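Thread: "does anyone have the structure for this chain?"

Original post by V.I.:
We have the sequence but no experimental structure in hand. Need at least a predicted one for the grant figures.
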Amino acid sequence: MKKVKIALSLALAAFTLCHTNGQSQNEKPNLVFVFSDQHSYDMLGSYGNKDIITPNLDAFAAEGVRFNNCVSTAPVCTPYRGMLLSGQHPLRNGALMNDFRMEAGNGDYFAEVMRDSGYACGYFGKWHLYGGNRNRPIPEGPYRYGFDAKFLSNNCTLLYDEERSYYWDEDGNKQLFGVWEPDGQTKQAMQFLEDNANKPFAMFLSWHPPHNWGQAHEGYDAPAEFLNLYNPDKLTLRPNVEDTPEIRRMYQGHMAMITNLDQNFGQLMQKLRELELEENTIVVFTSDHGDLLMSYGLGHKTFPEALSSRVPLLMRWPGKLNPRESNLLFGTLDFMPTLLSMMELDIPARNQGRNLVDAIYNEQDDAV
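Reply from O.Q.:
Generated one for you, tokens below.
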């Protein structure tokens, strides 16, 4: 009987140890990948902007690696998203321009690799990879590219307000959020974390703001509580933009949308803490491309200027990544091989990016 009791005690102790913090200690790390849309590197406090209010993202930056030189290899929505999720250049994956459909991955794409390695893969928010008509759901199957555990998206819409923002549910029905779009998407993402806390997961959250939208105020608008945080007359404009009331209102709306995203990011990180998942989760924050905000009189994006192609990149993994500032050159195609390597997953032979994991771990910012 004593041997049986000892065996049971050891088994119970092992079970308790293996399930501390909501998951097995031997499981591979989770991934939370958050990205905004049309958000330049200079529009965060942690990158030196003294006007913008981003306390949650700034605190997060201090806890991980802040990359100074993250480049959107193709600063347009669809080509960027195609490269991010396929690990391949647009000429190979087919996502050449906005509203071109990306080719099926046949197991070689980012989420497909994670899914096939036992990860629950969820996607929430803007998609913009199905091509053609934007106002339709993305059907189950190969054109979700591995995000098979949960997929709630509006494909691509420019309606963020609580009266009109929507998503397609899992039955292909359009559902109104009833709240500001990023607020609703963040709640969906937090529910996914709760539902998958006891298994390996990879969750991508794609916010559409601070991309311009709608008609009013040149498309840069936000809920009043965030707009009221900024006095347009006191904002510091970029030195390469004309100083007009219209431009100042554009800056106000753009910054207000970012502050809302910051609040949502803080809620998402709090959910990770509540679920005791923080230590075993790689968290990434970045954007698909920047916004010129009429700098040089050029418009918004697609141009090679840094304000269009240089984006923020913050990466945290407690105990694995030393908090620091990095000057490593990081491109869009580098996300998939680098993060898969961190997760100890195989990198498909067709991948065209660089695996920068050793450079990041060893703090070798001059790696090529």
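V.I.: this helps a lot. The radius of gyration is 21 Å.
O.Q.: and The beta strands are 30-36, 65-71, 120-125, 150-152, 166-168, 174-176, 201-206, 281-287, 310-316, 324-331.
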